[in-house]
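Notes to self, Snurportin-1:
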Amino acid sequence: MAPHDLRRPFKRPAISDQQRRRELALLRQAQQRSDSHNRARQLASSLLSLPAADQPPSSPEPILEDQPIQIEPASPEPEPEPPEAAPTRDLNVVQASKLRGLEARRWFARQLMLPEWMIDVPPYLDRDWYVFARPAGMRCFVVSSNGTTVSRLRNGSVLHQFPSLLPSGARRKDLSGPAHSYCILDCIFHEPDQTYYVIDMVCWRGYSLYDCTAEFRFFWLNSKLAETGACGPPAAYHKYRFSVIPIYDCDQMGLQAAYAGVVPHVKDGLLFYNKHAHYQTGNTPLALVWKDEFSSQYFLDTDGTGQVPAQQQVVLELQDDGKLTTSDDPPVVFGCMDGEFLQKSNLRPGNLLRFAIGDESARLHDGRLEILDLQFVAKVNPRSRAFADSYSKVFFQYAARHSPLRIEDLIASIQPNLGDNSKTTDVDMDD
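result:
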């Protein structure tokens, strides 16, 4: 592939199928309305009662180094494989309560709404989308019920257990309520100021918001949270402060405010939410994350030492047939490992593996990113993460190294003098 010198025209065609997947996601949510009240009640119960996933309480999961592979002679009698279990993504809360270790971490991670990385600028960005600055910190669920408040990280481990001014969040008469008066908030814990920044509301006083639009959820978030006093300073019955984040319509003024406005937290890029999107668990193209070198310390992925590696690195999951896939549903296949190497290295299906991608080993073909060669680096420690990279993250990191989607491109996409608002303004990346 020729050296990357990719020029961005003012208006350019989309380079991926992200918009098509957005349209399908909106169609699916219109066709499939879940039993959201029962779902929220069971999730709240599990978040409160389940033991931490192989972690001591009130201790976030440590960041561990990847494990080098030791090649060993092939064993004449391979070890028996454990019996197959139902895929964790298909389990309900009761079944998931029996999970431990990696499977428990994966199940908990899938209960959050996980944004895709912005590859293409969505059409009608100013009309159909919100934007806000993402706080740097630990993503978690916060649930208040029966006089206590618990926060759990994506891996299911307990971050904090504390009293709060959330409904039923502390053992006080004025805060207590019936058993159904529980709340679930989607938060980012910002350690420098010990604050939970609330980015979404999943359930409020027992009322499920899974099947409500982002427009309604954000309205309730801003109105209901302020009524509780939970945004006030810490006190005897309120150990941590909660804070809402300014959310803007994604017009030119709103985008500039989110990008350049002063905020009390460290920024880690921008989040974009489709106004019509329900709270969809797992990866969704109806929520997007975007970063550049000015809005995030982690614009490009770093290694264990905090340095940006010379080559892009990806984490993929090893499947039964040796294929290497992303965390998407359905997964995207980026390669396949040699069976002889797998046997000698004792790698097993489900292992997360880190690979490097050379500049000559990736290309765009018909709107899809193809990786022609993966250079094995190491096995990822299973306690450091639960999932492989998503396809959109791999694509975003590839574009970030060669022709990043810049803030000027986002602003240009919502210029009032663009003649055809139905066109997306996306990167034109040639092989």
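- Residues 303-402 form a domain with the OB fold (Dihydrolipoamide Acetyltransferase, E2P) fold (CATH 2.40.50.140).
- The radius of gyration is 22 Å.
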